[in-house]
Design a protein that fits this description.
With about 150 residues, the chain is α+β, with helices and mostly antiparallel strands. About 25% of the residues lie in helices and about 30% in strands. It is globular. The structure holds coenzyme A. Coenzyme A binds near residues 107, 110, 111 and 114. Coenzyme A (COA) binds near residues 27, 72, 78 and 110.
Length: about 150
């Protein structure tokens, strides 16, 4: 039974390696170390002893919108429900904050669809979310799929 916890500042280098290992393979968006430090309060982690084996973040954009981002589970810990637990922790936090809509941008839409998300047109998402896309090497040819999850708050 893995336990989802809020990230700590000491976890940042391991979170950074976990995310960027998948980003190097084109599976998710890279995150600079500085961005993870600045947003450490967004992050949830799962540990195995001293090792951070998985992470996910909930980032608030506005009164009615947040994003689940940087969901990453180490390859040797996948298919055990850890990714699901992390996304559920993000959705629980969003519900607790009374944020009714959570979106994500991903190459793994089926994983999020099983968790209650449904696909949407990226252009339907508010412009505010594009601020970080400008820094993405793929911009403006984004090939990630946008999904949203409506929460009862
Ligand atoms: C996508 C990702 C986060 C999924 O993490 P995960 O921990 O493997 O996810 P889960 O174990 O919760 O669910 C994955 C599958 O395992 C199944 N599963 C869940 N609990 C399980 C358990 N206890 N035993 C066996 N299988 C289980 C799920 O039903 C799901 O099935 P599916 O492959 O048919 O969809 C992971 O593959 C990953 O980190 N990928 C690279 C980064 C990435 O693509 N991130 C996406 C967001 S940007």
């Amino acid at each position: 039974m893995n336990l989802v916890e809020k990230g700590k500042i000491q976890d940042v280098p391991q979170i950074h390696r976990l995310i960027n290992n998948f980003a190097d393979k084109g599976e998710m968006m890279a995150r600079p170390l500085s961005e993870i430090y600045e947003n450490i309060r967004d992050y949830f982690v799962v540990r195995q002893g001293e090792r951070v084996i998985a992470c996910a973040a909930l980032h608030v954009y506005w009164s009615d919108l947040a994003e689940v981002k940087s969901v990453a589970v180490a390859e040797d810990s996948q298919q055990q429900g850890i990714g699901t637990q992390l996304v559920e922790a993000c959705l629980k936090e969003a519900r607790g904050l009374c944020i009714p809509t959570v979106f994500c941008l991903t190459y793994r839409p089926a994983f999020f669809e099983k968790l209650g998300f449904s696909q949407t047109d990226k252009m339907e998402l508010p412009r505010k979310i594009w601020t970080e896309c400008y820094r993405c090497p793929k911009f403006p040819d984004c090939d990630e799929v946008a999904l949203i999850c409506n929460l009862e708050v």
